[in-house]
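Folds abound. A case:
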Amino acid sequence: MEVRQHLFIDFEFTMPDKGKQYKGFYPEIIEVGVVSVINNQIFEEFSSYVTPTQYPKLSKRCKSFLNISQQQVDDGIAFSELVQKLKEMTGEHSYTIVTWGNTDMKVLRSNCEKAGLHFPFSGKEVDLSMEYKRFFGDKNQTGLWKAVQEYGKDGVGLHHRALDDALTTYKIFKLVEKDKQYLQKHEPTTIGDRVDLAELFNKFA
């Protein structure tokens, strides 16, 4: 049986206070949420805070926006441990990385480069927000929680908590895939389905 693995990933990042300049600032991952799904079943969930190195002290804006404390990130894992864990969560089979937006993978690549570490993934990467946009023909990209609410559903847990957002991404993925399957199976009706042709021919005979 073919093994199909998807990794649904969400990161939260450091952010500067508005109007303040931070020399050499770049967003660093401070929280991770990963949901590993193999053959449509959740196989593993991983969640952790991550200790930043460039600017280890969080800004007031960051703590407020993410509802995160300095102590939580101080007690988090090192970025190198995060990279190792992400490697371990992929098997030898092919896999697909799914994120909402392209920022998560951009920041992970940047953080790996800054730390001198190899990027942990080689699998296909899917930006589900763009898939959603194309599928529904939206002009603008939709936020994660707005997208799930447009389906008449609720997000999982709390917004801007990494694991909850990863689980919400997985939830939307399943809804979109279900709609795609419906459209593929649903063939447009022909005129013969709508009109009884025999009756029509008799009428004009």
